[in-house]
């Protein structure tokens, strides 16, 4: 699996992903404590640091667009939505500019990076490159497609209520799906498998959020039907079994 993702090449993708995930984690912590604006600023800071680490971090940052429907659902106000969006963008730009200033590269380094990226020669087509990636990660690809397919159903049926768990938060699901999509865009140019290191954690985020919603929906239906104690235990056992099954399938495929 490591060979497939070209980990031995010591690419910068793991570092880019780690700093972005740190921003996501801090956002979730603040969100659950009722300090959403601070959380969005920290999320943006993680994006800015990710772009500073490597230009492919911009594809992770683009995934923040997936939060827009959720931010609107919470705010129901254009002015608040614009403030929340501006908080993410301003924080990301501030951290990126500060990093470039401290690094010493400045505007010249940014221009060089943009010019280099624009001059990339394409290796294969987008569909062909994605097909090659999917063939090497069939389990994750299938689960991600399922998570995307369940999204509209969840949005249409889910009651608007705050959740105590990060995974069942629809914003986490939306962020995972959107970032998974945006981080696949580099495959339009090249077929380098290590690009998938940007996608994998966010794909798993979306998959677990979809699984959590499905189990939560089943448990809620059983509860409304008057089946409480045994039903709750059954749903919990099913959830644990599903997580173990997914982890096992991914592990088997990874080491095959």
In short:
The chain is mostly helical and 256 residues long. The chain has helices spanning 13-32, 36-53, 57-62, 68-75, 78-103, 106-118, 126-136, 138-157, 170-182, 196-224, 229-255. Helix 8 (138-157) crosses helix 9.
Please provide a written account of the structure.
75% of the residues lie in helices and 0% in strands. It contains eleven helices and no strands. The protein has helices at 13-32, 36-53, 57-62, 68-75, 78-103, 106-118, 126-136, 138-157, 170-182, 196-224, 229-255. Helix 2 (36-53) runs parallel beside helix 5, helix 5 (78-103) packs across helix 6 and helix 8 (138-157) packs across helix 10 (196-224).
Give the SSE map.
Elements: H1 13-32, H2 36-53, H3 57-62, H4 68-75, H5 78-103, H6 106-118, H7 126-136, H8 138-157, H9 170-182, H10 196-224, H11 229-255
Helix pairs in contact: 1-2, 2-5, 4-5, 5-6, 8-9, 8-10, 9-10, 10-11
Supply the helix-strand structural class. mainly alpha
- Radius of gyration in whole Å, from Cα? 20 Å
Overall pLDDT level? 77
- The helix fraction, in percent, is over 70%
Give the DSSP E fraction (strand runs of 2 or more residues): under 5%
User: What is the end-to-end distance?
Assistant: 8 Å
Shape: globular
The total of beta strands comes to: 0
Number of continuous helical runs: 11
The sequence of SSEs as H and E is HHHHHHHHHHH
Extract low-pLDDT stretches: 1-7, 159-167
Strand count, sense and barrel status of the largest sheet are: none
């Amino acid at each position: 699996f490591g060979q497939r993702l070209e980990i031995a090449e010591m690419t910068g993708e793991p570092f880019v992903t780690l700093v972005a995930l740190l921003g996501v984690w801090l956002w979730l912590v603040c969100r659950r404590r009722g300090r959403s604006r601070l959380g969005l600023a920290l999320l943006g800071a993680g994006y800015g640091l990710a772009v500073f680490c490597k230009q492919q971090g911009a594809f992770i940052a683009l995934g923040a667009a997936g939060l827009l429907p959720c931010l609107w659902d919470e705010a129901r106000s254009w002015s608040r939505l614009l403030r929340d969006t501006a908080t993410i963008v301003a924080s990301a730009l501030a951290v990126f500019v500060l990093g470039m200033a401290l690094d010493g590269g400045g505007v010249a380094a940014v221009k060089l990076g943009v010019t280099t990226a624009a001059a990339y020669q394409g290796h294969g087509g987008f569909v062909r490159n994605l097909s090659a990636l999917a063939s090497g990660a069939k389990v994750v690809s299938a689960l991600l497609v399922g998570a995307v397919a369940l999204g509209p159903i969840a949005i249409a049926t889910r009651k608007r209520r705050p959740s105590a768990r990060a995974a069942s938060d629809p914003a986490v699901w939306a962020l995972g799906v959107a970032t998974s999509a945006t981080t696949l865009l580099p495959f339009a140019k090249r077929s380098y498998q290590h690009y998938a290191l940007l996608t994998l954690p966010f794909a798993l985020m979306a998959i677990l959020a979809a699984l959590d919603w499905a189990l939560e929906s089943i448990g809620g239906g059983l509860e409304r039907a008057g089946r409480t104690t045994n039903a709750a235990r059954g749903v919990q056992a099913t959830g644990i079994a599903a997580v173990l099954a997914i982890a096992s399938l991914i592990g088997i495929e990874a080491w095959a």
